[in-house]
Each structure stands twice: as C-alpha cells, then as structure tokens.
Amino acid sequence: MTPFVLVDAARVRENVTRMASVGTPARPHVKTHKIPKIARMQLDAGAVGLTVATVGEAEVFDFAGDLFIAYPLWPIPELAQRLGALSSRVRVGVDSREAVHAWQRVGLPDNVEFMIELDSGHHRSGSIDPVPVAEAAGDRLRGLFTFPGHSYAPGAQVSAAADEARVLAAARDAIGRDLLLSGGSTPSARESTGVDEIRPGVYVFNDAQQLELGTCSEEDIALVVRATVVSRRDDLGHVILDSGSKILGSDRPAWATGFARIRGHADARVTALSEHHATVTFPGQLPELGEQLDVIPNHVCPVLNLVDEVQLVDGGTWRVAARGRNS
C-alpha cells in the first residue's frame, strides 16, 4: 500500500563510494538516514567516524567507535551520564565559555572532548570569538567545526566553501594550537579545502534540493516516496497524491520551485502539501487515477524520521533504527 519510502541500495552504495573518493576524509552525518546498515557501508568505504545530531543517535551508532555530536548540547547530569556510558570516543559541540563551564560543572566524561563551533556565514549557532572558548576548554579541546549551511543556495557552493576555509584557518591561528578542522555539507563537500574532514549527510540519498542546486542528477536519487494518484483535476492541470507532509516533510526554501519533484517528469512539481495530500501540477498529459508515481522529497532528512522502515527496490526492508531519537 502507498505511500511508502523506497530505497535503491545499489544507488546508495554508488553515492557512498563517490563521496569517499573526493579526497578529504569523510565523517558522514547519519541523521540523514538513521540506518545502521548504511552507516556500516560508509565506514567500510573509509569514513573516519560518524557525525550525529543527538545523544540518542549516538547511542544507536555507538558501534562506530568515533562519534561527533555536531550540535551545541547544553549539559545536564543525565546527558553526561549517557555519553559516559558510550564505548565510543565522543566529541561534542560548544560555542561559548558558558557551555564549557556548564560541562565542567556536571562532569565531562573521560571519553568526551570539545569541538568549538564557528559561524562561517550560515548565521545559526557558532562562535565569532573562539579564543575565550578555547581557553576555557583547555586540553579537552580537540578541534574546530562549522556548518556552511549557506551553501544551500543556487551558485553558493564555492563561496560557502571558501568562507568555511577562511573562518576555520583564522580561528586556529588565533587560538595558536594544532586543532582538527571539520567542515563540509553535501552541496559544498567537493569544494572544501583546508579541512581535515567533511561531514556531508544528504548525499547518500540526494533529494530535490540537490537536484535544483545541480549537485546531483536524477540518476543519483536513491530514495523516493511511492504514491498513488487518488484524484485528478483536468480543469486545473493537477493530480492529488496520497503522500502529504506526514511522509514527505514540508521543507521548501525560498529558491525551490516546489515542495517535491516527480521522478521521470522533469517539469512536474508538488505545488501544495496537506497532511495526507500532495498537489502535483503537470504541464502535459495528467497521470491516470490509480497510477503510482515516485516522489523525490525536497529535503530527505525529515522523511526518515517519519517512517519505521524503508522498502528496498530489490526486496526486503531496512529498519530506521534512530527514528525518534531526538534527544
């Protein structure tokens, strides 16, 4: 029954292999897929460790042995206890002296080190004055990182990677220590220079945003949502699919031309989403009622947090083991 998430495992492997050949060691962000089988595939391809977003994800992927929680966690005793129970070496993000001191008050576990987050242009979290943070962190400081999220805009990949390199190098020089530099996003990963590792995530599946940015082709799309045409309006030039925001997510950046795309129909767009309805405009002949279509989500990461398992093109399923591990 539709809708369901469909994954092409062979394409996933191709995408993993291609990113592994970029040249800079990868520490892929597994919040995208949340699936241990894919994480093991990435490690087998040479990943130096894994990036996660939450402590819950770290617990699921503890088998990696080397984890980076690329998020400015605010410490509480329970959180510190959970990190200390992991078998992996763990790095956590901080962007203020206050956060470092809070970690010191609750007791930083022996297996945990700091990474200072820098703002390289995305203007979300991240320090613009890392020297006091580094002084507070002392010998528990492992490195510096940034997320060049402003690479998610048409034509911005090269400039975002340049911003990343400049900000990381300047911070390392200001601190005056030999620190690991971590950067990279899926759009900018191939442009990253001067970093010790890159942290792309979306690349394993790719999505409609990457298509629109030109960082992948439709042949590189490894995940779709299979949906059924349940209503047809010839007078309006659109059909309704049974795949709404509860399986596609609802992300749509200002530059995107729709909420999703349709595989094999380059000019079709999902122009509106309700919880269980997707409105798809077609410039030509409309699909028939009951016809099944493959929807390419705008942003693939939220999709995996909406399903318990994914079906595979070649048969079988993969469990989304870290679904719901949001804290």
Automatic annotation (TrEMBL):
The keyword Zinc does not apply. GO terms for molecular function: D-serine ammonia-lyase activity. SUPFAM superfamilies: PLP-binding barrel (SSF51419). One of its GO terms (biological process) is D-serine catabolic process. Residues 222-314 form the D-serine dehydratase-like domain. The keyword Lyase applies. Signal peptide: none annotated. InterPro entries: Ala_racemase_N, D-amino_acid_metab_enzyme, D-ser_dehydrat-like_dom, D-ser_dehydrat-like_sf, PLP-binding_barrel. Keywords: Lyase. Belongs to the DSD1 family. This is D-serine dehydratase-like domain-containing protein. It comes from Corynebacterium doosanense CAU 212 = DSM 45436. The lineage of its organism: Bacteria, Bacillati, Actinomycetota, Actinomycetes, Mycobacteriales.
